[in-house]
Amino acid sequence: MISRHLFECIVAVAVKLLLIFVGDFFQLPPVANLDYHDSGEFCFQSPQFSVFEHTVVLKQYHRTNDQQLFNVITYVFAGKLSADTEAFVNDLKRPLPPSR
Questions:
Q1: 64 and 45: one domain?
Q2: Which top-level group of life is the source organism from (predicted)?
Q3: How does 29-58 read in b/e, with b if 16+ C-beta sit within 10 Å?
């Protein structure tokens, strides 16, 4: 994930180029680097992000056929925890094996 600061630098330099940005905003956030005046904000927080006319959101998930697990992961990523989601996660608890 690129930061807002890096995104704005790229856009400023590459004004007449075709740019394709690919990313997953549910992954780790950008890391702040105050030496370069980079606060670590997401690139979509830049006003220049709205200049891009075409955005694609992928909605089909290919890594699991377990719909309940998929729903729980989606809710957890979005920060929307229901009682059902919490119960599902709690049901996954098990004791750790003894340490060696």
A1: no
A2: Eukaryota
A3: ebeeeeeeebeeebbeebeebeeeeeeeee
Specify the 3-state DSSP secondary structure of 42: strand
- How many Å from the N-terminal Cα to the C-terminal Cα in the chain? 38
Task: Tell me the torsion sign for CA atoms 58, 76, 88, 96.
Answer: positive
Residue with tokens 């180029």: 17
For residue 42, list its beta bridge partners: 3
DSSP 99: P
Model confidence pLDDT, tens digit, residues 22-40: 877 777 888 899 998 899 9
Is the same domain home to 15 and 47?
A: yes
What length does the chain have? 100
Query: Which pTM was predicted?
Result: 0.58
